[in-house]
Amino acid sequence: QKEVEQNSGPLSVPEGAIASLNCTYSDRGSQSFFWYRQYSGKSPELIMFIYSNGDKEDGRFTAQLNKASQYVSLLIRDSQPSDSATYLCAGVYNFNKFYFGSGTKLNVKP
Amino acid sequence: GAVVSQHPSRVICKSGTSVKIECRSLDFQATTMFWYRQFPKQSLMLMATSNEGSKATYEQGVEKDKFLINHASLTLSTLTVTSAHPEDSSFYICSAARRSGGVSTGELFFGEGSRLTVL
Questions:
Q1: DSSP bridge partners of A30
Q2: Which of the four, A8, A101, B78, B111, has the lowest number of CB atoms within 10 Å?
Q3: Within 10 A of A40 (CB to CB), how many other CB atoms are there?
């Protein structure tokens, strides 16, 4: 199995703060990385993906990829209580196989 | 957007029986679908890759005779848990990657998941 590592948390941030979620991966052959949000008892839903080094912004979310350090992160600006969920990082191999980290639980306190 | 539908969402069965879970891509053709299993507070574990018209590819440690996968059409894959036991109780999730011109667009769409409880 390919390895994607995440801190399980929980990560607690106050409402309006920036939440920073991190992920490392072991296989340099991975092509791209995805961030999914999963509410308890539900399937994951896509937030965004990144495949080039650097930052990618989408609304309140910014994904960062550093291939040299094998490190991926997700920043959530102006965090809301509705952002409270488990965030899954996934690496893609062979262009279609997704391997997931164990997820980081985020709590945004009002 | 693309939608992947999974059925049933919940199933309770007795030990020793078989359970079939269906996964449908509703508005795109999926030559490849993926089946994941997720235990409480754990990651999604890839079980197998379902290939339309051919045999599924199983991940290491997954028993192919226990988890039967059939991908008979471009929009339907089924997972059958045979002779289910309590340790098979889990959240099973299917997914499909949308492709354009034979190349994955990179988006993986998930079904709603099926929670299996084996008594």
A1: none
A2: A8
A3: 10
Q: Which residues contact A78 (CB under 8 A, 6 or more apart)?
A: A16, A18, A60
Contacts of A90 in chain B (CB under 8 A): 108
Lookup result for tokens 């084996």: B118
3-state SS, residue B88: helix
Rounded CA separation A24/B52 (Å): 33
Pair type for strands B114-118 and A11-14: unpaired
Contact B39, A103 (CB under 8 A): no
Q: Which of A41, A45, A96 sits opposite B104 (nearest CB)?
A: A96
For every residue of A37-48, DSSP letters joined together read EE-TTS--EEEE
Each residue's pLDDT tens digit, A70-84? 999 999 999 999 999
CB-side neighbour CA atoms (13 Å) of A27 = 18
Of A81, A102, A83, the closest CA to residue A25 belongs to A102
What's the pLDDT tens digit per position in A38-73?
998 888 888 998 988 999 999 999 999 999 999 999
Pairing state between β B114-118 and B10-13: parallel
Is B51 within 8 Å of chain A by CB? Answer: no
Which two tokens mark A108? 């945004």
CA A17 to chain CA centroid, nearest Å: 17
Burial class (CB in 10 A: 0-12, 13-18, 19+), B89: middle
